[in-house]
Amino acid sequence: MTKQPDENARQLLDLGKRSKPRVFEDGTPEQARLDYNAGFLSVQGAKETVTSLEDRQIDGPNGRINLRLYRGIDTPSRDAAALLYLHGGGWMLGNLDSHDEICRWFANIARCVVICPDYRLAPEHRFPVGLADCAATLTYMARNAAELGIDPLRIAVAGDSAGGNLAAVLALMARSGEVPTLVAQLLIYPNTDAAQTADSYRRHGEGFGLTSSTMRWFRDHYVRSSADILDWRVSPLRAESLADVAPAFVLLAEYDILADEGLAYAERLREDGVPVVLRQWPGQIHGFVSMGKYIPVARQAVEEAVAAWRGFEEVSDQTMP
């Protein structure tokens, strides 16, 4: 444990205090998006070159879904590993540009194809609409594997914050056959319990970027009613069992209101027999992986996620008959 966020995180927090026009919950969802979109490019690092980048559309249960496809440097043209990346933003914010830096890192480090959907956002599209878009994207990847140049049996899912929530839920859906099989889930400071009662909401509820009041505002715009909070598709920590889901890499930030529920999820996974690599990053704040301009260890976090993913694949290969 550290006594306070590290120097780079403190610099970023100070910058946020000086530049942020309002807290999200003091405005409308539209104003929150304008503020968020005006700020995310200023904290991302330089964009790495990838072999190719393509925007396309697919059909989903709620209409067209915009996707961005990244093919990393030295990625095989056939039977490549693939990653479905689900961006964070409290189910209300984010788009195909907000997490572009992370997707490029994953594509190059893993030498894989990354697909990021611009899933529908709340409150215009409350749960489970955005989740359905993510599920449709995963199904598209598996069904069109040959055209995409990927191996349908080597698809992993990843996401940060609300995207980590969606990724964890997709892993549970894959277990039951609702969506295609996943080989790994890479969860970056995931939201796993919408009840928001974990002690880290008290310890880090103010002064560390994401606040407890903002997180409550996000949740209340996402769910249709309080009953949804108990639904495992909103709160995967409340699933009856986590057994037999894909192996998990779980990354947590020390000064994050989501730290305790993320830790609880990793512990539940282990208790239910799921291979887990847990990384608790000291001195860091929520969102640090998408703040590469100020947080030098952001790319390292992605490197560790990829290393865990590859480790899970190696174990799987060794255990196959």
UniProtKB/TrEMBL annotation:
Q: Which UniProt keywords apply?
A: Hydrolase
What positions constitute the catalytic site?
S161
| The organism's place on the tree of life at top rank | Bacteria
Please give the organism.
Rhizobium lusitanum
Q: Gene3D superfamilies given for it?
A: alpha/beta hydrolase
| Protein name listed in UniProt | Acetyl esterase
Q: Which residues form the Alpha/beta hydrolase fold-3 domain?
A: 83-289
Tell me which InterPro entries the record gives: AB_hydrolase_3, AB_hydrolase_fold, GDXG_lipolytic_enzyme, Lipase_GDXG_HIS_AS, Lipase_GDXG_put_SER_AS
Residues annotated as signal peptide: none
Q: Which Pfam families match?
A: Abhydrolase_3 (PF07859)
Q: Tell me if Hydrolase is a UniProt keyword of this record.
A: yes
Any single GO molecular-function term of the entry would be:
hydrolase activity
In the record, the note on similarity to other proteins reads:
Belongs to the 'GDXG' lipolytic enzyme family.
Spans annotated as Disordered: 1-21
